[in-house]
Amino acid sequence: MVTESDTESIQVEIVPSRFLMPVTAQKLLNEIYGNGGIIRIMIHGPNLPRSVPYGPGRGAPIEENRGLLIEVAGQAFELCVKVGRIRLELESDKYFDGLKAACERALPFTFQIRRGKFFHTKPTITDYAKYGKMGDARILGLIDPKAKNDRLAILSEERVTITDEER
Questions:
Q1: What is the CATH number of the domain that holds 45?
Q2: Which helix (H) or strand (E) is 75 found in, with range?
Q3: Beta-carbon neighbour count of residue 132 at 10 Å?
Q4: Does residue 1 register a pLDDT over 50?
Q5: 162 occurs within a structural domain
Q6: Is residue 36 one of the residues assigned to a domain?
Q7: Domain total in the chain
Q8: pLDDT at 161
Q9: What share of the chain is helix, strand, coil (3-state, %, to 5)?
Q10: DSSP type of residue 21
Q11: For 35, which of 62, 68, 98, 141 could close a Cys bridge (C-beta 3.0–4.6 Å)?
């Protein structure tokens, strides 16, 4: 018997006990992607500054934060944040156990997996005012409406699309 909970998508948040290095983030994202069933995913954390924000070196460029490329499912994109948590939406509850196993394989330290509601399901007034009508409902809630620049990488089988007004 198919129940409603078997067919509904679920939203999950993975919270590691520390920020992830780019290599660990790449390993975790590839494990998650290999599990399958992902509708959308968001990497959340503080921005990696491009220049020294304060102190005697204020304004000097930080070269180690440039070009942090990670490859997920054969597609490379630049990592612009320290990975602190990962929010994702799965097609159904049957992918949850595989997600938990993928996290255990990729993370050598403790983490939490929370279920809840982490993405918008309908556009807000702010979303409409800033972006207009959104054709793809998967990007709903993935862009910070208060941010000055939009940073979004869309992974598809064809190519990676990176949207960023700074570059």
A1: 3.30.70.260
A2: strand 75-78
A3: 9
A4: no
A5: no
A6: yes
A7: 1
A8: 45
A9: 25, 30, 45
A10: P
A11: 98
